Amino acid sequence: MTYMLPYKTKQFFFELIKLGVVCGAFYFIYQKLVNNPELDFHTFITFLLKKDIFLLKNILLLLFLTFFNWFFEILKWQTLVVPIKKISFKNAFEQSLGSLTASLFTPNRIGEYGAKAIYYTSNYRKRILLINLLGNMMQMLVTTVFGVIGLYFFISKYSINVNYYKFVQCLLIGILIIILIGYGLQKTKFTIKGFSLEKIKHFILGFPKKSSVIALFLSILRYLIFSFQFYLLLWLFGSDITYINTMVIITSMYLLASIIPSIFIFDVIIKGSVAIYLFGILGINEITVLSTITIMWLLNFVLPSILGSYYVINFNLPKDTD
């Protein structure tokens, strides 16, 4: 005999889960700010006050860039979803910020996949998971392309001591490993996010080309905006380096930080460690680099997740009617 929980009890537990997600996100933000081993909170605030970061014109300019960073991300999500289900920009806004809040404290933000899928009825959820994977792959592709170019110029310009013989050896070994892994995966039932590689390949190749091109273009715009925001913060902190030289470091930093395996909880620390090394070559001090990364995190993750908490609290499961 199956015992079914009363409707009101289910609603109570559902509300409790939503409240737990929001509380978990806020607790994570608090811990990252107050108990950050890389950057003391009091030192951070004192440094910001000393550099006049809280001037109205600076705040408005930084918020302007954050707005467009997320505007293009939300527009990208709407563009990718529309081929399977038409949604408004308002819907895309709610789903993007709500899923950010729900995934903020999950490893590698994996919670974003489930959070976005749950906004849709069961007949859409598998495709939504694949669309989210496609969107993340596009952003990673942009990061990789810009990063490889930046890293090439970084190594050339700053005469980094690279043993090219060993580099070529490692590259050949890496290619061989990838080929062997690829061959092995074809012979097994390996899955990504619960989908076989064949199904993912079929979905990506069959996805509307126009939507893919627009989404890729929006990914590039996002990258250029948050990269410029990083440069602007360094400039506001008094770093005397040109935009081109800074972009060489920034693109290299984002590439290296992306390929280092990490849990999202430690993403800020890993980015900080990579950035300290790279910008240290240009003579930029540690407090400037760590403060820049922390503000980037506050503007582009914390602020949107605070807004997203409203949508988490007011979220209701969709009914399987469409």
UniProtKB/TrEMBL annotation:
Membrane found in the keyword field: yes
Short name of one Pfam family: LPG_synthase_TM
Topology of this chain in the membrane: Multi-pass membrane protein
Transmembrane intervals: 12-33, 53-72, 129-154, 166-185, 213-237, 243-269, 276-299
Superkingdom as given in the UniProt entry: Bacteria
UniProt keywords, alphabetically: Cell membrane, Membrane, Transmembrane, Transmembrane helix
Compartment(s) where it occurs, according to its Swiss-Prot or TrEMBL record: Cell membrane
Presence of keyword Transmembrane: yes
Protein name: Lysylphosphatidylglycerol synthase TM region
Organism: Flavivirga algicola
